[in-house]
## 1
Amino acid sequence: MVKKILIALVCLCALGANGQNATISPYSYFGVGDIRNSGTVENQMMAGLQMYADSIHLNLQNPAAYSSLRLTAYTAGISHKRFGLKDANEKQSESVTNLDYLSIGFPIAKNAGIGFGLMPYTSVGYNLNSQTLNEDGDTVTNVFAGEGGINRVYLSLGYQPFKDISIGATVNYNFGELEYQRIQSVEDVQFGTLDTRTSKINGFDFNYALNYTPTFKDKYTLYAHVGVNTQVNLVSKNNERLGSFSLDTGADIEVIDVDLDASGLRNTELKIPTVTTLGLGYGENKKWFIGGEYTFQQLSSFSNDFLQVQNVEYTDASSFALGSYFIPDYRSISSYFNRITYRAGLRYDKTGMVVNNEEINNFGITFGFGLPLGSNFSNINLGFELGKRGTTDAGLIEENYFKINVGLSLNDKWFIKRKIN
């Protein structure tokens, strides 16, 4: 019965996620879209920290963590994100709901584990209007819209070759389609013009991790982590259509396929630079933990020749994250609240995007709860995030967002039928 409920829930979430764009951020126009957080709800609610690993939860960002698994673990997560968008003149709000990940991991030896799954990597979704006056004083309206995204399937392996040292590797296959459209119309002119560009994308990248977790006084653990997500090498097969259409009926009047072969833009390469993460933490196992991570990326080397966006440049990106958890008493019988895991964190991201000469940065506060399911090791995780990205300066848009995460973390003991002899 539990299996049927889980499968139905995941399918329902997947249908809801596929029914709409995964983001409505105007900043998803740049690069290859918004880079999605690849962590589970447990990790996201500790500001996205990668370093922490235990024996019953999956860590999708840190392949070395699979060496700690002692039970088969199943995990799935969904999120609902509400955006408040504002510029210098007006405000509006929108929301999206997504399936964030679907994964399984299991031990294959005493100190080794493996995992695989599916998750989104980037998302594109925006619809913007702008109006200007031409030389004749007529109003010119431009509508910019985009949708799509890149998904990834992954396979991870973690191994502990020596005491307190774990290593791991992940191979990611990325695939998807991005569509960008610009529509322009002029006051009192019967026809408008359109420019539609699509990119079918695929490619691989690899993620390597090293964890060092020595124990002190038989109960305190130091967590040291190095993670390297190698350069994402993507191949983009591009198409572009230009033409005009009737403003009254919406019917195309004359639309042509642009000869991208002549300009060398039919097939282009997108190279998303390597991301390196350094982390350090300390805690008492199954009681409390606090840690911090610094992530950096030479995003200044990124470019997208096919889109050729004029008002953006890329600089080196970096992130600071601080996260923690606390469990009053995980073995408590008398109080359910004592067995709850309480998580919190905060992060600051320099995204590396500079639009209209303004840096686009992000600040977020996270918190959440891990709620035990029965007397086994499975749990449901609730998470919340408050944050702000962007600015209203230089004609840009500021995003204020509130995100709700729900994640299921089940293990093989959850599916065992109890028998009475």
## 2
Amino acid sequence: MGPEVAEFEKNFSDFLGGEVISVASGTDALRLSCLALNIGPGDEVLVPANTFIASILGICELGAQPVPVDVDPKTYLMDLTDADRRINSKTKGIIPVHLYGQTLDMDALMDFAQSHKLFLIEDACQAHGAEWNGKKAGTFAQAGCFSFFPSKNLGAFGDGGAIVVNDYDLAKKLRLLRNYGSTQKYIHEIPGTNSRLDSIQATILRIKLDFLEEWNNRRFRVACQYSEGLKGNVSITSPSFDPSLSKNHVFNLFVVQCEYRDQLQKFLTDRGIQTGIHYPIPIHLHKAFASWGYSEGTCPIAENLSKRILSLPMFPEITDKQINTVINAIKEFKIYE
């Protein structure tokens, strides 16, 4: 809570175009946003089935019910048509995820939330600097949530997070919640918690913020190189994006689809190429949430994708030689199908 934190909050606020409240992690950003918007027992919140578990933990901790929504097979993002089918009298909000760094259609999402009188929290934890029609991801909704985990486009050297809002009262409440319900030492206005960004992490983030746009541009160029190099490969489906809209997708991850995903992953691993799966189990099928009562078939597109998706190496410093090594290895894989 020192001057380094205040300076980073100001710089990130200027970058995004909204008031930033830093917290200890992206998970806390989502949880405290739900808490500030009075989510609790008996409430239901729509969430995409294909996302990291942190997207829903805050909902669960507050006693509310996450409701999984299927995703678009090309963009991997929340399908609003399916979301509409899952609304009932208990539905209080929606938490879309700008997954892998790609912005959702925020015009459609805002209309959807407003027409159903739902609160809207953007999970922008993988989308630092991404834009929709010139406006930064995370700045459309009542609250936008960011993670500064080291693997993010803007990453600290440890955990960290932030919430961006455009409402004075909500910002005040979040500042109280993150610091024991207090703005003055030993004077507590509401029950709060300890979720503060460390000064050393704030300093690192402030310095790295100056390079974020350059790094995002490099990620986009890498994505274009991958897509061009894998074009025509019948065993691979590259992610769908418009190469003329370099701000809509900042490619925290480059995620392809392959019917022989597990074999391809082993093939690449054997050649020294590390890959990942984001994510191998849709949220509603985790053992941790068996009590929800969902089964296979609830979100068939997300369930099918979980068996096909594979994240290729993606980081700003990756070289053309390394990119071509990955592409050529995937081309060789056709021989082993």
## 3
Amino acid sequence: MKIGIFGGTFNPVHEEHVNICKNAIKELGLDKLIVVPTFLPPHKEVISESCTDRLNMLSIAFDGVNKACVSDFEIKKEGTSYSYITLEYFKSLYPNDELYFIIGGDSLLSFGSWRNPERILSCATLTVVDRDGINADYEKEREYFKKAFNKDFILLKYRGKDFSSTRIRVYASLSLPLDGLADEKIAKYIKDNGLYKGDKYTEYVKSQLPEKRLYHTAEVMVSALSKASELKLNPEKVRLSALLHDVAKYVDYKTVEGFQIEEGMVAPVVHAFLGAYVAKNILKIDDDEIIDAIKYHTSGKANMSLLGKLIFVADMVEKNRDYEGVERLRALFKKDFNLSFIECLKEEMQHLLSKKRIIYIETLNAYDYYINNKKD
């Protein structure tokens, strides 16, 4: 028999997970495909929902998918879920069968750093599915793979869409519709069971922003969180900074006791400074890096923290932004974060100059620091 193994957090499962499996079954001629949700992934992602809920949603999503089944092996085993242990388990169950381990193209790029990759490859043929937004050079990866492991991998013809479990969680936390993001039955399960609820900060943001701005906030969160792991940033700090970056967008600063406009402040940056004030004094966030990221997300400044840079860029490239050149900046954001930050800063300066607007001093300082003096 030919058996596929497809693992992940599935938090929650979405339609591209199902599409990948359907196409893998077809292209590889699989007799069975086993979907294996993790208990705790090695990268220590916080899984917000229970194992039971994730298993239930997987059962709903794969109901009726011929030859596919869901395994609770890693969940019952508990502890950190390492792929080599899972593959060796299934190889012991099916010693005389061909196993295919299905991963995304983004996972292929880091496969060499996984725990015991050789043991994975001794059990199964690695099978890779590309998707929009990965931009991997698979021929280059194939050369590396052969050199490192003396093995080849299969690249499926199917190319997945850029779906995101993170986007589903973020939208659900902000009470935004999940239409087009999650299957109807999965969306209903999430709503009926109150999954991915927000916290007190989310509730405050929802009380301050109209729905249109909530969509923007959600997409800034999704963009920023997509880079948190790569940049080795605390995902909770990233979430809070992105969530609160526009919290004061529609607040009249004159109504906020204790807040004063600094000398030389221009109108477009007031909401950012006021947002930082609200986060610190009303929401009681005691983290200077978060406060700083909110405060300078519009203007930038010299010597920004990595978190501050991330919120600045995410605000400019989130998927609902529509201005000339944004697609180029989005592509850079996915490929080279540092370069995307520099190019976003240039874009901001060019925009202000083209509109003949007064440029805030901190934006000038940022441009001088990063562009003229080429500081990191």
## 4
Amino acid sequence: MGINSFVNRPSRPDTAAPRISRQEAPAGLDIPLVLVIIALGVFGLLMLFSASADFSLLVYGEPGYMFNKQLAWIVIGTLVAVALARIDYHLWQRLAIPMMAVSMLLLIGVLINNEVRLGAVRTFFGGSVQPSELAKLATIIYLSVWLYAKREHLHDAQLGLIPLAVILGAVGGLIYIQPDLSATITIFLLGGMLFFLAGGDLRQMVLFMIVALAAGWLVVQFSTTGRVRLVSYLAGLKDPLSSDYQVRRSLEAIIRGGWFGVGLGRASTKLTGLPVPPTDSIFAVVVEEMGLMGALMLICLYGLLLWRGLKIAARAPDMLGALLAGGATFWIVIDATINMSVMVGLLPFAGNALPFISAGGSSLISSLAAIGILLSVSRQAGQRPALASDERRKSSASVDLRRRDRRRGQSRSRRPAISDR
């Protein structure tokens, strides 16, 4: 079972004119995914309108400043998503290297520019542009193209795992020294998942995890930020009152929200010291105002996005499409999981955004661009290029392990042995 099972070959290849099944017909635009993104976008705007008014007035002198900017960003991001959805995703094979080079230059430029914001050097133009978000998307595209090109050699560590580690180390290192620990962790998680999806050797994956854990331990030991956050996290596991200040205020908001919340716009913690409620802490505002039921609804929307993304990956015409779709989906879900887990004290503090909900143009446009790539893959789901049999075979492990297509495998037609003539 492999990518050949994704593209649903006719069960009788010797038939002159096989009848095209429903699954084989061109899928077109994935309407359920579009509806999920619309729901997330509308929900995000409502929550941002509630969470940002006081913060915008205090910082920018205008209550609607952040909401109006987010509205503009969502329009731009939607146009980007529509444009990318109409582009053949194979074009990224030519654009991956230039895009990666631009993102690396931007990461270096941030350090040279040295614009300190909230204790970190991550942005240009007063916080409007955050290159680490573009770097995440660029890494997904570059690694997908690179793994697709190297699919014959993934079992060779010198041609597979080692170059992958160098690529991730270069990007992650530039992001880490900003410092942005959450983005660095996301980059490495995405790299490992894409390597696994591409059919990387299981022993190499174990080695990758060991090295990643060792590197993480070293980061914690030599990074003041990492060490402080880990100590605060461990203390919070023993006693929530010893957690980081932001986590304590978030837990306060969650307790106040109860099952059904205090009502939209009626949260009090956003007015009494909850750090950056429109961005990192917006999930706490969601739970306080909408309750645990509102949080569950939001989690279900991300779950639906994961389902549709993996479905698109399963139906991709080739391995490149599967990797792009899988990488884009996992990125959004990983960021959402980290943000929500941090706010309830399940993970050490990380400053990543909640996709489609938190304020921020870089995060929103990058996430919508990823959705555009997903839709591009879905539009070509019924178009089956002539994939080589060895590509199908080498990618079979990744497909089978993920159970992304739960249909029964199609049995091959059996023919009686024919003697030599």
